[in-house]
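Good morning N.,

You mentioned wanting to compare the apo and holo forms, so I went ahead and generated the holo version with 2-oxoglutaric acid. This is what I fed in:
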Amino acid sequence: MVTDGTCRSTFLPQPLVGRQMPQPSLAQPAPLAMTPRIHEESPTVRYYRTTPADVSQFQETGYVVVPNLLHGDEVALLRQVAKKDAQIRQRATTRSDARGAATTLALSNEVEDDLYSHVTRLRRIVDAMTQFLGDEVYHYHHKMMLKDAYVGGAWEWHQDYGYWYNFGCLWPRMASCFIAIDRATRENGCLQVIPGSHHIGRIDHGKVGEQTGADPERVAAALERMEVQFVELAPGDAIFFHCNLLHRSDANTSPEPRWSLICCYNTRSNSPYKPSRHPFYQPLEVLEDESLLPLAQQAALDISDDG
Ligand SMILES: O=C(O)CCC(=O)C(=O)O
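and this is what came out, ligand included:
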């Protein structure tokens, strides 16, 4: 487990030769701040709470990386349960990326009585989301991303609001928390983001393979002006990111799986104006941070009893 709070993300240099490169005023990529943000320490529990600097960083760059959002024991148990959980595979759906490789995920619109839903209700995540979005948040959905070794497909450049706009959400007051279940590296297809790209606003999206991707012309223009950051994470690390942040990931051609749990939130004031596949506002019952470990221990016992 990584405990030093150091930066694991790297910049992809963009070719500058022969091009006029106007510099956007709002979109300078800030160095990835990785100061330890765990304000109360316990041997087994993480109590992440945002600082004003975190909130400023979220507003400026569209994301905040939090090392060790889940404690090593918490994430090890979560991984153990998830990988043995036959229901995840049964529920998973697959879409092809632009090259025909399979992107597989198990999505839930409901807050259920299981470990994954429990994570979505943890105070350390819900309170942080509330601070980042400036409003009460509710569970919009969550999904386990099954980017398996050798076969896990790519995600094309997109904004989550490129999808969610069509589901009746009037404002981009929405965000996600991506939690690494396995180590996420450049080799196994970690998340890539364009810091500050949420300031562009919503970009039109269309079909790329079976996925929905952001207008390639706009993405190319953004990439000429802004840098890409690879968000390499250790298990339990997380990135909170704004729904208009442009992001993607490469296919996993490595022998290492790259699973992650993505918890997505909408704000109370932005409840959809029409029915869609994702829910309207409903109050989220927040669970205290120390509740995760005993539940994860029990879930690990239950799943090993199941054979
Ligand atoms: O898991 C990934 O690599 C990307 C997932 C993603 O972009 C999304 O769910 O919006």
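The longest strand covers residues 137-147.

Happy to go through it together on a call whenever suits you.

Best,
F.
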